[in-house]
């Protein structure tokens, strides 16, 4: 019986099937008392619980819209960090990843954008969205290749073009660093829109 699925996870029904067969063999081959048998079964069930926890951690891909991994392969990593609504959360993402194509912009909460100065080393290109583009555009255009496209739809199109013309590994990071209220009701709606656009790329 296969105890693992195609992703390497332990199959629960297969596990318990093997468990029952093992208990039957033990009853035939060894003189178990009822007490010792129950103790053994209890340990085996505890082990199955540990396996469940292991599988859960193995499949965990991050909290929704907080540096959430949307896609990953040898050539690209796509991150949805729509919950990034200020410069500090943007800095955290910029310091974590390399070879970044950054999509940012929205309703800014502060004009002190210079706090990003020490976090730009991993950025290859910046794609700016949002109705209030001046702060981001003025800041980035003298530091890195920068383009303003206004909408998230156009940003993903620009991202797709970059994918097709660049064979090196890239991290496509959607980390707005600003609130969503200029174009969306909240960051969740903005995050869902990004995921939807990315899902269309693979079709």
Give a verbal description of the structure:
This protein is α/β, with parallel strands linked by helices and about 200 residues long. The chain is built from six helices and six strands. It has helices spanning about 10-30, 35-60, 85-95, 135-140, 150-165, 185-200; strands at about 70, 75-80, 100-105, 125-130, 145-150, 170-175. Strands 1-2-6-3-4-5 form a six-stranded mixed β-sheet, sandwiched between helices. Helix 4 (about 135-140) links the parallel strand 4 and strand 5 (about 145-150). Helix 1 (about 10-30) runs antiparallel to helix 2 and helix 5 packs parallel to helix 6 (about 185-200). The radius of gyration is 24 Å and the shape is elongated. Mean pLDDT is about 85; it is low at about 1-10.
């Amino acid at each position: 019986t296969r105890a693992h699925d195609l992703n390497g996870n332990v199959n629960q029904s297969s596990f318990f099937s093997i468990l029952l067969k093992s208990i039957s063999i033990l009853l035939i081959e060894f003189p178990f008392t009822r007490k010792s048998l129950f103790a053994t079964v209890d340990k085996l069930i505890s082990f199955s619980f540990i396996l469940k926890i292991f599988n859960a951690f193995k499949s965990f891909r991050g909290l929704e819209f907080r540096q959430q991994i949307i896609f990953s392969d040898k050539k690209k990593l796509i991150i949805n960090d729509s919950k990034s609504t200020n410069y500090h959360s943007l800095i955290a993402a910029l310091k974590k990843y390399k070879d970044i194509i950054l999509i940012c912009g929205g309703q800014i909460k502060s004009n002190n954008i210079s706090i990003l100065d020490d976090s730009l080393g991993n950025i290859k290109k910046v794609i700016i969205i949002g109705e209030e583009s001046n702060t981001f555009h003025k800041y980035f255009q003298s530091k890195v290749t920068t383009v303003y496209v206004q909408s998230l739809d156009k940003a993903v199109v620009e991202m797709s073009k970059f994918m097709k013309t660049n064979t090196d590994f890239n991290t496509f990071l959607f980390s707005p660093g600003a609130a969503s209220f200029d174009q969306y009701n909240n960051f969740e709606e903005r995050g869902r829109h990004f995921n939807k656009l990315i899902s269309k790329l693979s079709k």
